[in-house]
Amino acid sequence: MGRRTENTEYLKECIADALLQHMVDTPVEKITIEQITSTAGVGRTTYFRYFNSKLDVLSFKVGLLWRRWQEEHPLQGKATERARALQFFSFCQSRQTLLRFLYEKGEIQLIMDSFLRGIALSTAEPGRDQYREMYTHCGVVGVMMVWIGNGFRETPEALADICAFREEE
User: Fold this and answer.
1) What pTM was estimated for this model as a whole?
2) Which letter does DSSP use for residue 25 in this model?
3) Where are the domains of the chain?
């Protein structure tokens, strides 16, 4: 019998929340799997069934939050670059405590990788449009990293205006 998706996601989120809880006082590299699984109330087997590393755990959490945000705040019609950027920066603003925490813990690459996986699920055909799309996504993620470092001073709208290089036809 297969595992239910809701149960799997719940267990994975418990593991992620446990890791984040330990990261408050301990560098991620010093946190043991035993500490995470004990706090999460799961066994080591469960941890390794779903994750290969602690960075995978954190990436899962960021990606999960992003997917939930997109479901709760869907884009209407044919979304422009500005609309997509605004959706992304609004999400980041809503999760600034987590993003600032990860940033301060030195997990910059994790944040970037998580979002690039989440936002760069390209629908473009291989070729020029695909490269252009990835170029835009990497730029938006880079802007997000500077924004976190600057303490989220600008509004999501201001950043969306900066990142909307051109409106789509």
Assistant:
1) 0.81
2) T
3) 1-51, 53-169
